Amino acid sequence: MSFDFINDKHKKIHFIGIGGISMSGLAEILIENGYKVSGSDVNSSHITNSLKNNGAEIFIGHKANNVYGSDIVVYTAAISKNNSEILKAKELNIPLMDRATFLGEIMKGHKYNVAVAGTHGKTTTTSMVSHIVIKENLDPTILVGGELDIISGNVRTGNSDYFITEACEYKESFLKFYPYIGIILNIDADHLDYYKNIEHIKDTFAKFIKLIPKNGYAVINYDDENAREILKHANCNIITYGLKSGTYTARNINYDKNGCAYFDLYKENKKLFSIDLNVPGEHNVLNALASICASICLNISQSSIINGLYDFHGTHRRFEIKGVKNNITVIDDYAHHPTEIKATIKTANTYPHKKIFCVFQPHTYTRTLSLFDEFSEAFYGVDTLVLADIYSASREKDTGIISSDMLGNSIRNKGINCLNLHSFCEIASYLDKNCTEGDIILTVGAGDIYKVGEIFLKNY
Predict the structure, then answer these.
(1) What gap in Å lies between CA 151 and CA 142, rounded to an integer?
(2) What is this structure's pTM?
């Protein structure tokens, strides 16, 4: 496969921040298609090591000299305009392209682009759709924001017209995409370091839905009020779903001992078929409905839908059982927004347990500050909450305005048993001394809080 915007496979594409989950996926797609790839990142990881083993030239650390010999430089929205590699590329007149634009250009080469958008659930839903499309033998190209066992990572390079990807709304990135099917799972207040308010966010999703062509499909969660509001902006086929409303609904929902749902799928008042899920929680019923609707739009068989969803056991870092030690179960989840945290805790309470010890690492100072009140009320349902320090994204600096200790004080004022600890080893030691047989350790956050569970499992 070749791409119109890179007409010469001898050209070299350099990625700034190549270790990121999305950037690494784009790099892998190019490597698989015979292009020369280089990239830099602050730290090495299993992702950068894998890319290096597959033929990419990897630089650890951002340095101006890294871009020499490049024909195109790709960067993420998190990279500063003052980054040394950005500045050198400009000096050398090397074309610069942001990640979203680059991904959009790759999407142009495919007819059936499935773009999964929404504040919550993008990775899981993208993974569910991927399982179904693979089960149908459609040979898709896949780019997912997590590691998925069926594709042995976060990317799959196919040789067909089918492309499945997450569509992130941060800094309006998804407005550079070319969706044939646009899924909108929900619309919530987030990324308030960029967006002014929820109205600004809804306006951006309205622009996204307008990108879908007349013969394409908008798949909308009709239970979500904000998502419902933007339907009026669609100029394409509309498919709605929900637990309470929508054309396609889940009825007769029941849960097994691990909190995984089985339900009947209805189109209006007609039962179509039954679904068994192997991922827990009510929110995953909604994610499954979204993936089913997208699959119906692609004319995928009923058997592939049923079997694809049954075979899906989750994405890494999405309610992932990391291990069991002394009959204490360690579960990790990527939830970093109050709405996601509530859903994760609700799911944890359906899982067999005595007590839930939740370890939360707030993700970014901006999000913690802008959603402070919502975070303060997100942890009902846990027996003990341990707060780690705020995870600082590369695009942010600690101004001293907000801290994990401040959040802890607010949560304690709500009557929740909460303590602040400031190192992972300290947290793991606390868990070892206080957890007993039958308890759950739930590590939550989009940073590196999963390491606490790994320390506990390895050292205690």
Answers:
(1) 9
(2) 0.85
